[in-house]
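User: I've been trying to design a sequence by hand for this structure and keep getting stuck. Would you show me what you'd pick, starting by listing the structure so we're on the same page?

Assistant: Good idea, let's start from the same input. This is the structure you sent:
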């Protein structure tokens, strides 16, 4: 039985643990946080990823946790509605696509694996040393252990990637925008509704999902010129307050709530681009290897599919991890590249550069329901996403 250490207990890590266990491996998941990370933002599961979730027997549970968002409303500086659209179209979803909160999906995956997968919380990897008998892993808190393989499923700022491949600046490509999301009181009384207030170079949103008593605030903006420490949350909050200080609507109230938010998130909209995803007995999966950025809407789907393909490729290689890693990359790379292409085009509609562009967009949204060719226009919006989401065949291993 092959012992595999997986760093990261969000989406890719537990999914990989599930499928490795199915194939007879013995996975261990280590997570830096003291417990599962709750909260997060809305995420989509589409195309091939739905097939993976279905094969796990979790699709019904995932659908029960759907956000059930109904509508997106665009408002001006005074809160007046300027345009509206269905939540499905706003999220680029169609057919069986599912939207779920990241924390809910993480909980579902953990519940499906915790019975026969070892989880180590409140610890992280500090050193990796390849030896003839495997990889000697040094932990921050626990005793050192040796594993046959090590997998980095630890996100955009992957610790495993840094230890194995070097400085992250070589692999992280900033798309010129930042994102911040955090929980706020639902003072607008939103019910499965998303409110958006666009401004030149910036966009602010607030939404509340099904059965949620609070709401999420979301800020998208052109990357700031001011440098900041990604580990200094107070500095990031001050920077966000400065960037959005002059906006109206409910922005001042959202910024006031920011200071006490328990789950403040602030980071660049970036992609991870690497020439290879493995080195020796160490391999990367999900955002750590090929994060497409939140702008693509496909990070979760890539994580789910990548974990399935990696586990299956290792099983098919019958003990030859190098062959398994090569097969995994061969199958996944075209799928990754197709999905990463979505980010740049999506960003153009998410953060508009000028007031004129905003007026044009609002006008088109108001007109769309009345245009004779509206179905073709909607298809042009959703077709690239559908094509990317299905750009891989999920095969049996």
């Amino acid at each position: 039985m092959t012992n595999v250490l997986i760093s990261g207990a969000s989406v890719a890590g537990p999914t990989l643990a599930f499928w490795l266990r199915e194939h007879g491996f013995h996975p261990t998941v280590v997570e830096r946080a003291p417990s599962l990370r709750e909260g997060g933002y809305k995420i989509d599961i589409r195309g091939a990823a739905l097939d993976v979730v279905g094969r796990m027997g979790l699709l019904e549970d995932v659908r029960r946790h759907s956000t059930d968002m109904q509508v997106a409303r665009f408002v001006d500086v005074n809160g007046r509605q300027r345009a509206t659209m269905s939540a499905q179209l706003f999220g680029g979803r169609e057919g069986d696509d599912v939207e779920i909160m990241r924390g809910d999906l993480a909980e579902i995956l953990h519940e499906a694996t915790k019975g026969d997968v070892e989880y180590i919380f409140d610890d992280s990897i500090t050193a990796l040393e390849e030896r003839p008998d495997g990889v000697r892993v040094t932990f921050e808190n626990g005793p050192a252990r040796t594993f046959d393989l090590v997998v980095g499923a630890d996100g955009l700022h992957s610790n495993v990637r840094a230890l194995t491949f070097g400085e992250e600046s070589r692999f992280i490509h900033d798309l010129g925008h930042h994102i911040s999301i955090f929980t706020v009181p639902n003072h607008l009384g939103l019910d499965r509704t998303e409110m958006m207030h666009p401004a030149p170079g910036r966009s602010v949103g607030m939404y509340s999902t099904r059965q949620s008593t609070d709401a999420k605030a979301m800020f998208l903006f052109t990357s700031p010129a001011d440098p900041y420490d990604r580990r200094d949350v107070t500095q990031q909050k001050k920077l966000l307050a400065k960037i959005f200080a002059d906006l109206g609507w409910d922005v001042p109230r959202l910024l006031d709530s920011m200071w006490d938010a328990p789950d403040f998130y602030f980071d660049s909209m970036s992609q991870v681009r690497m020439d290879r995803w493995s080195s020796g007995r160490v391999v990367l999966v999900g955002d750590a290897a090929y994060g497409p950025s939140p702008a693509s809407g496909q990070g979760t789907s890539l994580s789910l599919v990548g974990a399935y393909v990696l586990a299956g490729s290792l099983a098919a290689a019958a003990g030859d991890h190098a062959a398994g890693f090569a097969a995994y990359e061969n199958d996944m790379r075209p799928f990754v590249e197709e999905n990463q292409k979505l980010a740049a085009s999506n960003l153009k509609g998410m953060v508009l550069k000028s007031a004129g562009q905003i007026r044009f967009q609002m006008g088109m949204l108001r007109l769309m329901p009345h245009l004779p060719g509206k179905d073709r226009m909607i298809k042009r919006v959703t077709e690239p996403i559908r094509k990317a989401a299905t750009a891989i065949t999920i095969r049996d291993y």
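That's my pick for every position. To get oriented when you compare it with your attempt: DSSP finds 13 helices and 18 strands in the chain. The mean pLDDT is 93.
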